[in-house]
What we know:
Elements: H1 3-19, H2 28-55, H3 61-68, H4 75-102, H5 112-123, E1 128-132, H6 134-144, E2 151-155, H7 162-171, H8 177-186, H9 190-198, H10 214-226, H11 229-239, E3 245-248, E4 255-262, E5 269-272, E6 282-290, H12 298-305, E7 309-312, H13 317-325, H14 328-336, E8 340-344, H15 359-370, E9 377-381, E10 407-410, H16 423-438
Parallel strand pairs: 1-2, 1-7, 2-3, 7-8, 8-9, 9-10
Antiparallel strand pairs: 4-5, 4-6
Helix pairs in contact: 6-8, 6-16, 8-9, 10-11, 12-14
Amino acid sequence: MPEKVLFSRRKSSLGRFFQWFMPGLGVKRWLFFLFLGITLISIGVAFFLLDVYRNAPDTWWLPLLSYASLRFLPRVWRVLIFGALGLGVVGWGLWGLNRALMAPFVPPGQVVVDTLARHRRRERGPRIVAIGGGHGLSTLLRGLKNHTHRLTAVVTVADDGGSSGRLRRSLGILPPGDIRNCLAALSNDEDLIGQLFKYRFANGSADGLDGHSFGNLFISALTGITGSFEAAVVESGRVLAINGRVLPSTLEDVRLVADVLPQHAIGEVRVEGESNIPQAKGRIRRVWLEPDNPPAFPRAIQDILAADLIVVGPGSLYTSILPNLLVPDIASAVRSSRALKIFVCNVATQPGETDHYTCGDHLRAIEDHLGEGIFDIVLVNDHQAGTLPGSVQWVSHDPGLEAEYNVHCADVVDEARPWRHDSQKLAQVLIDLLQERTGPLVV
């Protein structure tokens, strides 16, 4: 093996050794107590051997003990030699114990100290609350979980279509679909368990299962076992080993209603049900919840008020984002929070819901429902490259929008699916914006 490669490996191993003494890992204090205990044991053993050496009768093994204790060397050299041997043996034992204990928990090909450092950094990361639903929220969470474990998703429960709607009507529970997506996105093992939670039974399968997702059925079953929907969500998070929380915006059985101005009709049409609103084929004038003024989930309010960063969007404007903010206590908590509040505008329009909308149209729709002055920063994608499907269009940046809002433009688009955000790009831009205001929050 070339000498340069050997030197590089030795240097890398030495660097990893000193990484154990970096601030914030929580290791140095326990190493101190470990070495203190070993030192006390060593002192006790030394006193015992000294007593044996001085008081034992003259036997054949006393000279061997004298040579083993290196009495023919100066005392300073003996201290250094035995100290170095002791440190080497202790270090080798700790290294072996560490590998044996951590092997089941460290992903293959990763170093224990690096994994521990990342875990500690995310444990002390910023408190972030993400508000929304659908694929947009799960995309955001998938990126943010790499920066912090103090992450809360506040999710809409107005869904009434697909598997969630069927379970809602048949079992009388809150719709689990958006919550399931967020749990899967926050999972440490999204490749397997996350895919299992998102698995959907094909049409033509066993009676009653066709079209249902496994995650929805799992949460529904846990609701029956635990006796409450919120407890079922908590237990599902434990099964998926998520770092963070997924909370419903309300536990009330709410229904989303909209006034829509159809394309080829006179007058407004009232559309009931979240799944029916995009099918109305018209311009949505306003949406509201029935029953009106539902109580917010208390833990969601607590996390919003304690947050360092509140992110609203991306996601379906009228059917994912606004249903959360239409819970009065949620909107009041967002306004009252001292967190940095960022609105993430969609990169592309949603057919039947935001056709031909610009970024300004998204903001004005929220302000028409909730009033002005909610957000500190508006994040807009400025990289419009790639082919969009069907009637989907880019959400353009309005000229002069900076005169009304604090706008930040960045490339946050997914190259493979340009109508969606890239989770890693989006999360990094949000963390950078937070640190520009507060400085690094990781200690």
